[in-house]
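User: Quick one: structure for sequence A, then sequence B.

Assistant: Sequence A:
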Amino acid sequence: MLYLSLIIYNNLLIKLARKKNITLENIELTGAGTQGKAISKRSNSKVVFTKWGVPGDIVDIRVKKKRKTYIEGEIINIHKYSPKRVRPKCSHFKLCGGCSWQNMDYKQQLLYKQNEVFENLSRIGKIKVEKSLPIIRSNKTYFYRNKMEFSFSNSRWITKDEIKLNKKIKDKNALGFHKYGMWSKVIDIEKCYLQSNISNKIRRFIKEESLKLNLNFFDLIKQEGDIRSLMIKITLTKEIMIVIQFFKFSNNANKLLETIRDKFKEIKSLMYVVNNKKNDTIYDLDLINFSGNNYITEKINNLYFRVTAKSFFQTNSYQTEKLYNIVKKLSNLTGNEIVYDLYCGIGTISLFISESARKVIGIETVKEAVNSAKINSKLNNIKNCKFIHGDVKDIISKPIKNYEKPDVIIVDPPRNGLDKSVIFSIKKLSPKKIIYVSCNSSTQARDILELSEFYNLKISQPIDMFPQTFHVENVVFLEKKEND
């Protein structure tokens, strides 16, 4: 009996081992889907998702997850390379995961982004887009980001090539991005192609000086060390902001800031924060201005905007003017309208459209952003914009004192979209037009479905703000139905 039980147990182990090593051979990747994963759709078979593939590749895939309707796996062999493939520029491709489409021709990236927006609106939104406009490309496909954040770590990711050398690795310090799927490991970045070269120069200098000053790079697991993160913001006006997060501040930390200030005259704002929390968000912390201003100035069109460390600004300044022109065009303002700009940030859209509206009311949760919006309004001598601090859902749930109901509502919410109570209030306010800006067309489509009882989806206009990634911005114009 015991012998029989052992045989059954061994057979079970063999079956489990086989299940764990299932390989799908000669699979043709036919498209790109959620989160930039390549997909294979075969008749009478499950959809297969895999990262780093390019539509047109013929590959072998090792199965990692099996679900009722789909399979997730990793490419272990490529039999035939897709004609849509290009050689990635970055030596860190696949490691940090930030530019997951860098191996795909840019024209093809645009095609799949356009398709994703259309699929989300039609599948999730379940409504017809009357006019779906072609995606607006980015003229600059590298070095376009105005904000980057890097992590210090005393436990960097060791590459396969380093392991093959079979040598003891002494230097485990890193300043870079988290390894894709591994929060505790950081890739030591030599060159990033997303922000201009001065950013690479500054980052490398800060790393070298930190090591010279014996500052301990942060230990993400033990939650200890001296220095934990670096933020670099750069404007089209060539102004630079540096924000360094220290876990502990010391004389050597102060010396580091002095050397940065003296080395780079381009830095117009050098700030730091002491953060001994378990997360690295700075929004609930006080920033200390070490030198220069506590802001840098960006110019979009003929408008100037003061950008602070905590304020949100579109990450691709080169495309921002195009984006705001889309909003302005779709709003089609005559000069007589009251406009509500929800999630207005530092007032960029509000101020951009102000010359075409009677009054613009911007509403924003982050107090510092509202303060910046008011300053930006004065900076540009714009007098028909009013900015209100508070939770959007609370502010618009009741009439705003001294202001009329809106003719047009513009929304540019976070990635998770609109709160249901906000949608309810928008319906109640019943504007003639809604312009919805989103970096997540799936949540945008979900919210449009909620609004579709009273509004028609007239126009969808995608714009690429994030080349080399699967992310895409989309702007839609919703018009109130005539019988409502």
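Sequence B:
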Amino acid sequence: MKIIAGSSSPMLAKNLARIMSVEIADVSIKRFPDGECYVKINEEIDHAIIVQNTYPDENIVELFLLQDAARRVANKVDVIIPYYGYGRQDKIFESGEAISAEKMARLIEQDADSIILINPHKEHIRNFFTKPVELCDAVPAVAEYFKGKVDAVIAPDKGALYMAKKAAEIIGCGYNHFEKTRISSNEVKMEIKDMDVEDKRLLILDDIISTGGTMRKAIELLKEQKAASIYAACIHGLFIGNADERILQAGCSELVATDTIETAYSKVSVAKEVAKLLRL
């Protein structure tokens, strides 16, 4: 058994290798002048565990090539996708659309014996696969990081409430969520009901931070209500267009993400949670 580290999540691959006491395979990955990807596995492997995101686009092709190369040398190929890119288009919203989450599943499973997804945007994405799929939850790892640091966990919307509740149970604190009310086509009102946040240490937890607009507004509202300190955390930190800077400038005490996408804020590793599934 060896881990094949793709270009997109080397930190997670290294953490996983350390925890499982397995080696990282010798793999060559490079780009030709025209941008095309080249991969080569430089050793024989019986059981290959590939760690690679499907975000951004160039990492998708790299994943497919790593799978193809692994299938040619290994008897078993497991694929870990830390961040499942294209997962947010999980159904048809308007006629004529592609269901990208389903198409990605069909392509990925062609050269995979099993797949592990870490907090995909919707759990039902696993149903798009015909191969065995395990869902890894990074919330416990994030919650452990904040033990003793916060008095309550806040979800930025109702959809993330289950994460706030689970994290709060592990931390041993309260939880709540922002309720959104649309005022007009370009104005949304956000408020927390039935919770006094004054002088409290708060954690806002979401699955993905992309542009950071919702997170920034949530921080500003909590600051207005005189929260003592506000932490912002997510599983997948995309941080598009300096979103991290805007969040910190809004009054965030600390910004935390996991190592599903490697950034300066990857302070929590999901390697232990992934290792548990690989050892089943």
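The chain has two domains: 2-137+270-278, 140-259. The two ends are 15 Å apart (CA to CA).

User: Thanks, that's what I needed.
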